Amino acid sequence: MNQNDLRLEIQRYCFATHDMQLYLDTHPDDKKAFSLFKSLAQKAKELKSQYVKEFGPLTPMDNSELETYMWLDSPWPWEKGGNK
Predict the structure, then answer these.
(1) How far apart are alpha carbons 57 and 74 in whole angstroms?
(2) Packed helices 31-55 and 3-26: angle between N→C axes, nearest 10 degrees
């Protein structure tokens, strides 16, 4: 998966996770929805970790997964090209 595709997939999973969170705010006893929320959140976490390892941090907190602090390195995540 190239950089842009991976970033788009992360956005999809984060959006779906947030959408489930909003649903769960009004339906906290829905066990099926909570299970889906957990699986979406886990997949988003895995995709973010993959992105950080391949392309660098998306947020300053992502530096905790790296050997060196790279947040200030150019280009910024949204400025980077689509291919490695």
Answers:
(1) 11
(2) 150
Whether 47 and 23 have beta carbons less than 8 Å apart is answered as no
CB atoms within 10 A of CB 49: 12
In angstroms, the CA 59 to CA 44 distance is 14
CA distance 59 to 30: 32
Against a cut of 0.85, is the pTM above it? no
Residues of the chain with pLDDT under 70: 74, 76-78, 80-84
Each residue's pLDDT tens digit, 2-23: 999 999 999 999 999 999 999 9
